[in-house]
Structure formats: structure tokens, C-alpha cells
Amino acid sequence: PYVGWLALFVVAPILIMVVYAFSTASGGFTLDNFSRMGTYAAVFIRSFKLAIVATLVCLLIGYPLSYVLSKEGPRTQRVAMVLIMLPMWMNFLLRTYAWLNLLDDGGILFNICRNLGLPTFSVVGTNAAIIMGMIYNFLPFMVLPLFNVLTKIDENVLNAARDLGANSAQVFFKVTLPLSLPGIISGVTMVFVPSLTTFAISDLLGARKIMLIGNIIEQEFSTADNWHLGSGLSLVLMVFILISMAVLEHYDKNGEGTSF
What we know:
Layout: H1 2-21, H2 32-35, H3 41-70, H4 74-85, H5 92-103, H6 108-115, H7 127-152, H8 155-163, H9 168-179, H10 181-197, H11 200-205, H12 213-222, H13 227-251
Helix pairs in contact: 1-13, 3-7, 3-10, 7-10, 8-9, 10-13, 12-13
């Protein structure tokens, strides 16, 4: 049953996308769908920049948080994990609309600043708004693998490093950080891939002013009705995703960063 499910809902859609990517509307073979990629070079670059920034911020927030939680007791860890995962129980679009209400002109932050006599500002429709939406929605995907790896580090290994004369900084950079590398790679991959392919966040928080590659693909399928070009763009993104997965497999051969 698993092989049938995999073939029907994973392999078959990919094959269909490949056929569309290398064909024309009349069914003939073509590479035009890929030769047009240069037209969207600026969109690709923007998508990569925002995804990289969001991933780095998630890492800078998620690593210290996971490190602190790994030193806490089981009860505190359970409560913290529930609080971190609680927003994920809400629909993705609802979470994004909540941020739209926070950041939009006339929204909550706008009214607070105006009532306090502070300068008002407009965030929606900027790169900053999109990055904040990515961070909020994908931060748990960074915290979970990091927390999983950090809690598995044997305290005796850290004590042995201290007994050998290492100070706190040396213990962290020479023992803890290298041992947590699988979690870092896993977290970076799990945040970078959805950040690169998202279109709902950029559509709402970008006020349809900032186009990412996910928006282009979504429009080619739903508005322009050009499934061939949309499939070509999707296939290129899939290559980047496969590269990311290959990197993850190389640094996390035992699956330590993904077994939550």
C-alpha cells in the first residue's frame, strides 16, 4: 500500500510536471520553458536573498532558545515545546493574516504608535514584512531539530572537556557546536526550502508588490494558465530542493536532526 500511495501521489505528479516542463501546448518537445528562466533572474535572486535572511535569523533565534531549553528539566521542556508548537495548530493562512493585522496601516501596531504619539510606519508591502512572516511561520522547524540534537549530547562528554581544561567557550565551540551540526543542517534545510517556495506570505504581507518565485509559479498555474512554464520553474526549484536534501543527507547520515 505504501508503494502504491507513493507512486500515485508523489511519483506520478512529478512525472506529469516533467512532461509539461519539456513540452509545448501542442505536445511537442521544447526547451523554451527553461530558456525563459533568465527573464525571472531578478525574482530568483530576490527569493534566495529573503529565504537566506529568514533562515539565518531563525538560526540566530532558534539555536540559543534550543540550547537553553536543552539544559532545563523535562517539565519545562514539555511546556516550552507546547508553546512553540501551539501556533502551528492554527491554519497557516490565519497565522499570516494575523501578522497582516499587526503590521498593516491602521493595524494594531499602527494604532498603538499613533495613540502613544509615536511616529507611525508602514511595514506591509516591504521585504521586512515578508521576512517577519517567514520567521514566525517557520521558526519551529528550526527549533525542533536543534532541540532534538542538543538534548542527545551526553553531559559526560561536556564534563570530560571541562576536566581536560576547556573553558565554557571552548566546550561550546569545540564540542557542543560540532555535535549539534546535524540539527543545524536539518533546521536550515527545513526553513530554507519553504521560505524559498512560499507564495502566500509574500502575497499577503508583500501586498502583491513584491514577487517571489513561488508567486510566479502560482500565477502561471492559476492565472496565466501556462502549466508548461510553471512546471519548468517548479522543476528548477525542485533541483535546489534535491541539492538541499543531499547536503542534509551528507551531514546527517544517522537522521539525528530529523528524528523528533
